[in-house]
Design brief:
Length: 164
């Protein structure tokens, strides 16, 4: 379809007409509605959120701080594992193809970890804790990577170790 410059088309006329109607309606509402004409009757429940309120409005809604409540019960005493940790260190495994493992030292517990690959054309296929025996605390972290084509990728694992 050949398009001629400077000619009016149906689409141009309709879009211009719609633009004037939309702008005109907003201008009418802004200039003709009386001040404070929108009130509780016109607002739907939940339509005004804290994010929509000004700082002054939020301050006006706050009351005085009440008295502190009673102290809760003492929690259980932690054991020598991660719950009683005072030393936390990150240990890094060696860079390997396909899978890398980062291990904690003796007496340390793995509390988290992950892996990374230096190549943007490779992706991690897994990152998970490793334990010696089922039911024991993890002491290492494993990460695996592969190329976008599915071949083994270069990966380095890291583990966050905690000890008392």
């Amino acid at each position: 379809m050949k398009r001629l410059r400077g000619k009016l088309t149906y689409a141009n006329v309709i879009s211009t007409l719609c633009l004037f109607l939309v702008l005109g309606g907003g201008a009418y509402a802004a200039s003709q509605l009386p001040k404070n004409s929108v009130g509780a009757k016109q607002l739907k429940n939940g339509s005004i959120t804290l994010a929509k309120l000004s700082g002054a409005a939020k301050s006006a809604l706050k009351g005085a701080t009440g008295p502190a409540g009673p102290a809760g019960p003492q929690g259980p005493k932690g054991d020598a594992g991660a719950a009683g940790a005072t030393n936390v260190v990150v240990r890094v495994g060696s860079t390997q193809l396909n899978e890398s493992t980062a291990s904690c030292h003796s007496g340390e517990v793995a509390t988290g970890g992950g892996g990374f690959t230096p190549n943007p054309e490779e992706v991690l296929w897994g990152s998970f804790p490793q334990q010696e025996n089922e039911g024991e605390r993890p002491t290492a972290w494993v990460a695996g990577a592969e190329t976008l084509a599915g071949n083994p990728g270069e990966v380095t694992a890291y583990v966050i170790c905690a000890s008392p």
